[in-house]
Design a protein that fits this description.
The complex is a heterodimer of chains A (484) and B (101). Chain A has 484 residues and is an alpha+beta fold. Chain A has three domains: 5-300, no CATH class; 308-418, no CATH class; 426-483, Arc Repressor Mutant, subunit A. Chain A is built from 15 helices and 16 strands. Chain A has helices at 62-74, 172-189, 229-248, 294-301, 308-319, 323-330, 333-343, 348-366, 377-388, 394-407, 411-418, 426-439, 441-448, 455-465, 472-483; strands spanning 5-6, 11-23, 82-83, 85-89, 99-103, 112-117, 123-135, 139-141, 148-152, 159-165, 201-211, 221-226, 257-261, 266-269, 282-283, 290-291. The longest helix of chain A has 20 residues, at 229-248. Classes of the chains: A alpha+beta (484), B mainly alpha (101). Chains A and B meet through helix 1 and strand 9 of A and helix 3 and strand 1 of B.
Chain lengths: 484, 101
């Protein structure tokens, strides 16, 4: 379904490219041995390199290189065996060197692809332009002091991967789906924790519009640092509408950097555009070219986990799940692992129902993640087995599920303790059925005169007489035989 | 290559160096002189030479540069980091004039 903005002069479409800054999971910084941990006291994780002291030389963190290559492989991208670190020059209070060490025309990773899973079950391929390594800047705190800005350099030098998409996205929803999928891949790979609240994943959006049917690329605006998926989608929607208004009123959009204000749902101009893109990149003379060979890449390739797309395909094939159900399960790696734990040796579709509906419902209600689930995958798997082999009716299973959620006991113990076994022994149900028929001659007469909907009432009575333990299907059959 | 006054003003702004208007002409002449001196390099034919990004020819060195192990070996020295700061703030921050966008 395409996203169209209705203007006064006609229909417009939006062209979106996203730049995601993903913090590399590492113990130490990209060029120094200072720690990267989140939440430490101000300036406690700063080496003289991170503070931009004169004469300090950067030394590259090999693990950060490995993480970038791993991510590139996960994005099915071209890995460049030779890349160059460059200085991006600009002045800002939280960047003491006066330049950011980044990569410019020779990034470590080139073109790749991400497959988006859209909410309607379709998928769509989006191009990755590049991925490069760079260092983060420090943090400016503006509200600590009335007339000063306070600077904390703990984040200065933390390794980031900047992942740039091609301008292939055409709606806020696609932008959201892209971020979700990218996050999922990074978390599977273990190269970024994907935590947007702590800033481990930050997003800039490049937005422009054009009349539907046109293939031109009009002037774009860059919206900086939008820190949740919802805000990214809102910011794009707002910015695209603003562009349409500017063009339709006979004006022209200026290429500029804009800041999204979530409280007012608007974007506003951020930097003076005059110098906005004059970064004067040049190769960093403190660093040698980054080089490695095919064997290095092959070694990393061999350690890649099964990624979401492959897992989804396997779940569809091996477990017979729908594309939608498989997509929901694989989005978070932990959910997929849990599901496989439940589905092992039992009915997979039934397992999916219990995981996706009952378990996720329980976790949502309690506001906990799956790693804190009160019910283990093994116990839920056993519950599903007990339903599949007719030991429990689904109504009984729901009761057992509640009890498992309450005290974490395994289903066999609960079933034994409470004598909850479903009665599938015909003679036991037989007796109950005879009793109900004998006790209610009036209802039997009504039924026989054509009021067949009374069957439900009879089944209910038998269930009641057996404390809910009778197999409802067998009750129905026996009743039909005896009444008919 | 010769630079005009507007270009010099722009370079000065980018480098955060104050050049009074009265000095622009002289500075332009000096910078142009330096650039034309460096331009002599373009007399060398480099059409068959791959661009280098630094002073070391990677092909010529026998041991490849070593990368650092991902270990914490630094940090925990807030006093030293802030020792030369002109305006340190409570809690261990650098203080700078208010930066508001």
């Amino acid at each position: 379904m395409s996203y169209i903005i209705k203007g006064d002069t006609g229909d417009w479409e939006v062209v979106i490219g996203l730049e995601v800054h993903a913090q590399v999971i590492s113990k130490s910084k990209l060029f120094s041995g200072a720690p990267t941990e989140f939440g430490a006291g101000p300036n406690t994780q700063v080496s003289f390199i991170d503070a931009g002291m004169p004469g300090m030389l950067p030394v590259l963190n090999g693990h950060a290189v490995e993480q970038a290559v791993r991510t590139g492989l996960g994005l099915k991208a071209k890995i460049n065996k030779r890349s160059i670190f460059a200085r991006k020059n600009y002045f800002y209070a939280d960047m003491p060197q006066g330049y950011q060490i980044s990569q410019y025309d020779m990034p470590i990773v080139g073109e790749g692809t991400i497959v988006l899973d859209m909410p309607d079950g379709t998928s769509r391929s989006v191009g990755i332009e590049r991925l490069h390594l760079e260092q983060d800047a420090g943090k400016s705190v503006h509200d600590q002091h009335a007339t000063k800005t306070c600077i904390d350099l703990n984040r200065s030098g933390v390794p980031l991967m900047e992942i740039v998409s091609k301008p292939d996205l055409r709606s806020p929803e696609e932008a959201g789906a892209y971020l979700k999928k990218l996050r999922s891949i990074l978390v599977y790979l273990g190269t970024c924790d994907g935590n947007m609240e702590e800033g481990s994943m930050r997003c800039d959006a490049n937005v422009s519009v054009r009349p539907v049917g046109s293939t031109e690329l009009r002037t774009r605006c860059e919206i900086k640092n939008v820190n949740s998926m919802r805000f990214v989608m809102q910011a794009i929607e707002h910015e695209a509408k603003r562009h349409v208004e500017v063009w339709e009123s006979g004006g022209a959009v200026d290429q500029e950097t804009r800041l999204y204000d979530a409280n007012r749902n608007e974007t506003r101009s951020m930097r003076s555009k005059e110098f906005a893109h004059d970064y004067r990149y040049f190769p960093d003379p403190d660093l040698l070219p980054l080089e490695f060979d095919d064997a290095y890449i092959a070694k990393i390739q061999a350690t890649l986990p099964e990624l979401p797309d492959d897992k989804k395909a396997r779940f569809i094939k091996d477990y017979g799940l729908s594309a939608y159900d498989a997509g929901v399960l694989v989005a978070e790696q932990e959910n997929a692992v849990y599901f496989e734990g439940v589905a092992k040796g039992t009915d997979a579709k039934l397992a999916n129902n219990w995981v996706s509906t009952n378990l996720f419902g329980l976790l949502n209600a309690r506001g906990v993640s799956i790693s804190e689930s009160p019910i283990s995958a093994k116990n839920l798997g056993r519950l599903v087995q007990l339903i599949a082999d007719n030991t429990l009716s689904s109504r009984m299973a729901k009761e057992v599920f509640e009890m498992m959620a309450a005290d974490g006991k395994d289903p066999d113990t609960i079933v034994t303790e409470r004598g909850m076994k479903q009665i599938t022994d015909t003679s036991a149900i037989d007796a109950a059925v005879d009793q109900i028929i004998a006790a209610n001659p009036d209802k039997v007469a009504e039924y026989n005169s054509g009021k067949v909907q009374l069957m439900g009432w009879f089944v209910g009575q038998v269930m009641k007489a057996t404390q809910g333990k009778a197999n409802p299907g067998m009750c129905g059959e026996l009743l039909k035989k005896k009444l008919g | 290559m010769s630079l005009d006054k507007a270009t010099v003003r722009r370079i000065a702004t980018l480098a955060r160096i104050e050049v009074p208007d009265a000095d622009l002409e002289a500075t332009a002449a000096q910078l142009s002189g330096i650039l034309s001196w460096i331009e002599q390099l373009s007399e060398v034919d480099t059409s068959n030479v791959a661009p280098m990004s630094g002073g070391i020819d990677m092909e010529s060195i026998s041991t490849k540069p070593r990368w650092r192990e991902d270990k914490v070996t630094d940090g925990g020295q807030t006093e030293k980091v802030l020792a030369n700061a002109p305006d340190p703030q409570d809690g261990g921050f650098f203080g700078v004039p208010k930066v508001v966008e």
